[in-house]
Amino acid sequence: MRRPLKSKHFTTPFVACALLGTLGLLQNQYAVAAEAKAKAKPAMADLIKASSASDWRALDPENTLYMELEKGRVVMELAPNFAPNHAANIKALIREGYFNGLAIVRSQENYVVQWADPDDENPAKKREVKTARKNLDPEFTVRYDKKLPFTRLPDVDGYAPQVGYANGFPAGRDPKNGTAWLAHCYAAVGVARGNESNSGDGTSLYVITGQAPRQLDRNITVIGRVMQGMELLTTTPRGKGALGFYEKPEEMTPIKAIRIAADMPETERSKLEIIRTDTPTFKAIVEAQRNRGGDWYKVPAGHIDLCNVPIVVRPKQ
Question: CA-CA to 45 of 20 to 30 Å: which in 22, 122, 166, 296?
Answer without folding.
Answer: 166
